[in-house]
Every structure is written in structure tokens, then in C-alpha cells.
């Protein structure tokens, strides 16, 4: 009787050990799929632009997981163990979700900043136009005025491109273009102001 009980216990232990070995040796297909889905969701949220550091961490971890899986695939069947790979894949999901959350917040902030930059650009451009209309004219000034008009025309062209870029949600690009318009318009305004100060007069009516 005792031998029978011992045999049952031994059999159970062997079965349990075998089950554990099979669990450890099972390739983490589901974990890999979950990691890929999390990475894709982060990229779709704009993480490549708005949370690049966090996204790179997640992608690096995913690469490590694949290297670990490849190493275990080459190992002898009874010694394969994907626990490390599984643990890394879990971290990939967490890091990718972090990148997605950061991206959404950063993207919203970038949108707000871009909209503010566009308003400032439009205001600066109008001020520059008004200032240029008051620029003194006379001998030796026509070439300068023509150059300033060309600058403002270029600024208007850039400003006209912004609406199309805004629809693509490239708020970083929008902000950059708006800032370039503001800088150009401000320079025109400053140059006209200097000309007025130098001559001591505005354009004659």
C-alpha cells in the first residue's frame, strides 16, 4: 500500500514537473502579439514624434525579447525556457502604453502651442504690412522696399501652407512654419521702423 502511494506521489510530481517544463518551453506567441499591438498603438498615437524616447525604450526591449526567443529556439527542447522573454514582453507592453500616454499629452500641448504660434504669426504679418505701408519712399529706397515686399509675400505663402499641415496633425511642423512667419514679419517691421527713425518721416500721403 505504501509503495502504491509513493508511486502515485512520484507520478504526480513527474506530471507537475513535465507540465512546468512545457509551460516554460512554450514559445510566447501571444506575448509577442500583445507587444506588437501595444507598439503599433503607440505609433498610431504619434509616439515617434511626441514621445520618441519612451517609444525607443519599448522598441529596444522588444528587440531584446526577440533575441532571447531566438536563443531559446536554438536550445535543446528540454532546456528551452521562455520565461525571460515573457518578462521582457510584458515590459514592452507597459513601456509602449507609457509612450502612448505621453504622446497623447505631448500632442495636445503641441497643438495648443501651434495654434498660439499661428495667431502670433498672423498678427505679426498684419503689423508688418501696416508698417511697410508707412515706409518712407524716395531715391535709393525702392530696391529696399521691393525686397521687404518680397519677404512679406514669402511669409504669406508660408502662412497659407499651414492650414493643410494642421489637418495632418503635424503640430510641430505647424509651429515651426508659424514661427518662421513671425520672425520674417518682425524683421520687416524692425527694418521699416529703423528707416522711419533714420529719415524722421513716414510715407507721404
Task: Describe the 3D structure.
The structure is a single chain. By secondary structure, the chain is mostly helical. The chain is built from seven helices and no strands. About 6% of the residues have low confidence.
Which key phrases capture this entry?
205 residues, mainly alpha
**What string, H for helix and E for strand, traces the elements in order?**
HHHHHHH
Structural class: mainly alpha
- The residue fraction in helices comes out at over 70%
Radius of gyration: 33 Å
Low-confidence stretches: 11-22
Instruction: State the helix count.
Output: 7
In angstroms, what separates the terminal alpha carbons?
Answer: 121 Å
Q: Mean of the pLDDT scores?
A: 86
Outline the biggest β-sheet: none
Percentage of β-strand residues: under 5%
What is the count of β-strands?
0
| Anisotropy-based shape | rod-shaped
Amino acid at each position: 500500500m505504501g509503495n502504491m502511494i509513493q508511486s502515485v506521489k512520484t507520478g504526480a510530481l513527474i506530471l507537475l514537473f513535465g507540465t512546468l517544463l512545457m509551460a516554460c518551453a512554450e514559445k510566447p506567441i501571444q506575448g509577442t502579439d500583445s507587444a506588437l499591438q501595444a507598439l503599433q498603438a503607440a505609433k498610431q498615437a504619434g509616439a515617434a514624434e511626441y514621445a520618441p524616447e519612451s517609444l525607443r525604450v519599448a522598441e529596444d526591449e522588444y528587440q531584446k525579447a526577440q533575441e532571447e526567443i531566438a536563443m531559446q529556439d536554438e536550445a535543446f527542447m528540454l532546456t528551452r525556457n521562455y520565461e525571460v522573454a515573457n518578462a521582457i514582453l510584458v515590459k514592452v507592453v507597459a513601456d509602449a502604453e507609457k509612450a502612448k500616454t505621453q504622446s497623447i499629452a505631448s500632442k495636445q500641448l503641441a497643438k495648443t502651442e501651434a495654434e498660439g504660434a499661428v495667431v502670433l504669426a498672423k498678427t505679426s504679418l498684419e503689423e508688418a504690412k501696416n508698417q511697410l505701408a508707412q515706409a518712407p519712399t524716395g531715391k535709393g529706397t525702392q530696391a529696399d522696399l521691393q525686397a521687404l515686399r518680397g519677404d512679406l509675400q514669402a511669409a504669406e505663402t508660408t502662412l497659407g501652407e499651414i492650414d493643410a499641415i494642421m489637418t495632418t496633425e503635424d503640430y510641430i511642423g505647424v509651429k515651426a512654419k508659424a514661427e518662421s512667419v513671425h520672425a520674417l514679419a518682425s524683421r520687416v517691421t524692425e527694418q521699416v521702423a529703423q528707416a522711419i527713425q533714420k529719415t524722421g518721416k513716414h510715407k507721404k500721403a
